[in-house]
C-alpha cells in the first residue's frame, strides 16, 4: 500500500478518535447533570455532611456550578483541551495529576499481561495444531476453562496457592518484580484462553488453504509450515483483538489491583466510584478511552503491516 | 464484552469447534442442576443456609460440610445453592436488558437506512470506548451502588456488542439471494421483512442469549465482589466471594467454591452456546 494512503487512513482514524473522545466527554458531562444529586453537596462530603447554605453557595460559585448548563459544558470542553480534568471532590487535588501518578503502574501491568497472554496463546496454538485428536481436545478444554475464569476468582485462588500454601510469592503487589507475577498471570490467563481459541481455529483453517498446500509441496516441514505460514495467518485476528484486549485488561485491573492491593488506575477508579467522586471517575474513563482509541489505531496499522494481502497492492490472485 | 468477538464468529457461521458430545451432556446436566437449585433449593441443601453454628465456624471441607463452613458456622454448600437464584436472576435480567437494547439499536441500524446506520454506528463506537466494566462503574457512580443498578449497568454495557452483531446479521440477510428472490417475485416490503429477513437474522439470538448469560453472571458477580452490587450477607455468589475475601489466608473454601459455581456456569453457557451456533450453521 502506498505511503500516502497509509497516512490518509491514519489521519481519518485520528479524526474518528477525536470524535469518540469528544462524545465520551459530552456523554459523561450530561449524564452527570441529568442525574439527581447536587454536585456542591457531593463536594462538601455528601448528603450526610449537613453543609450550610452559605458553604453550598460558595462552592457553587467556586466550581462554576451556578452558571447555565451550556456555559459549564463549554468551560469543561475548554479545560479538557488544555489537559485539565478538573479537581477531585474528595481529595480537592487536580484529577490529571492523580491519574498521571497512577497510570504507569497500570499500563505496565496491562502490557505485561498482553505479552504473556500472546506467548501462552501462540505456544498453545502451535502445540495443539500438531497434537493428535486427544491433544486437541485437551487444548480445547484448557482454552475454554481459561477463558471462563473471572479475574477476581483466579486472583484469590492464586493467592491461596502461591502465597498462603506455598509461600513462594507475595500476596501484595508492590514495586518488586516478584509482586508483579501473580497480577500479571491473573490478567493474562483468561485472555490467553480467548486468543488461543481464535488462533487455533484460524491456523487449522490456514493449513487447508492452497498456500499451505503449495508450501508443503515445495518441501516445507510441518513445523515450518505452522510457524512460518499458518501462524502469520492466525495472528491477524488476534492482533485486531489486541486493541480491545488492552481495554479489557485495564478494566480487569480494577479487580486485580484491588485484590493485590496494588496502586494504580483501576484502584483509583474503584475508590472514586465508592466515594462517588465524579470528576475522578470521568477523568479515568476519558483516559482509558484515549488509550483504547490509540491502541485500536495501532493494531490497525500493525495488522496491515502483518497482512501480506495489504502490503503488496494487487498481489492477491 | 469478553466473549463478543468470539460469539460474533460463532454467529457468523465460521463456527468455533463444536464441543464434544460428552461436553454437551455435562453442560446439560449442570443446567438441570442449576434449575433445581433455583426452583427447589431445599432439595439440594443438606443444611439451613442461614443456620448459625458458631462452634462449627471455619470448618474446612469435610464429608459433613462439602464446601466447609463460614465465619458463622453456616454450611457454604447450602449457601452456594441458595445463591443460585439471585445470581442467575441478575445474569438473566442483565442479558435481557442488553439484548432488548441491542435489538433496538441493531434494528435501527440494519433496517433504518443509511443515516440511522451511521448514527448508531458512531454511538456504538463511543460505547466501545468504555471497555469491560468501565461503563458499569460509570453508571454506578451516577446512580449509586446496589443489585438493581448493577443489573442495569451490566445490561447496558453489553448492549453495544449485541447491537453490532444483530446489525451485521440484518445486513447480511437483507443482501442474501433468497431475499432478492422474494423481492423479484413481487412480495411486499412488509412481507419480505416479516417472513424472510427477521426470522433468519434473529435466529442467532438464542445463541447470543445463551453465551450472554454466563458473561453477565461473571460481570455482575465482579461488581458484587467489588462491593457495588449485591451486598453480604446476601447469599449471592459475588457477595459470598466478597465476604470470604477477608479470610482468604485462613479459609480458602469461602472464596473458591462460590467462584467455582460462576466458572462452571460460564463454561456451561459457552458450551451450549456453541452447540446451538453449530446447529444454526448446519441448518443454513
UniProtKB/TrEMBL annotation, chain A:
Listed InterPro entries: BPD_transp_1_N (IPR045621), MetI-like (IPR000515), MetI-like_sf (IPR035906)
GO-annotated cellular components: plasma membrane
Gene Ontology molecular function terms on file: dipeptide transmembrane transporter activity
Chief location: membrane
Statement: the UniProt record of this protein carries the keyword Cytoplasm: no
Record-stated family: Belongs to the binding-protein-dependent transport system permease family.
Protein name from the UniProt record: Peptide/nickel transport system permease protein
UniProtKB/TrEMBL annotation, chain B:
InterPro entries xrefs: BP-dependent_transpt_permease, MetI-like, MetI-like_sf
Superkingdom to which the source organism belongs: Bacteria
Keyword Ribonucleoprotein appears in the UniProt entry: no
Protein location: Cell membrane
PROSITE patterns registered for this protein in UniProt: ABC_TM1
Pfam families noted in UniProt: BPD_transp_1
Membrane-protein topology: Multi-pass membrane protein
UniProt family annotation: Belongs to the binding-protein-dependent transport system permease family.
Protein name, entry field: Peptide/nickel transport system permease protein
Natural source organism: Agromyces terreus
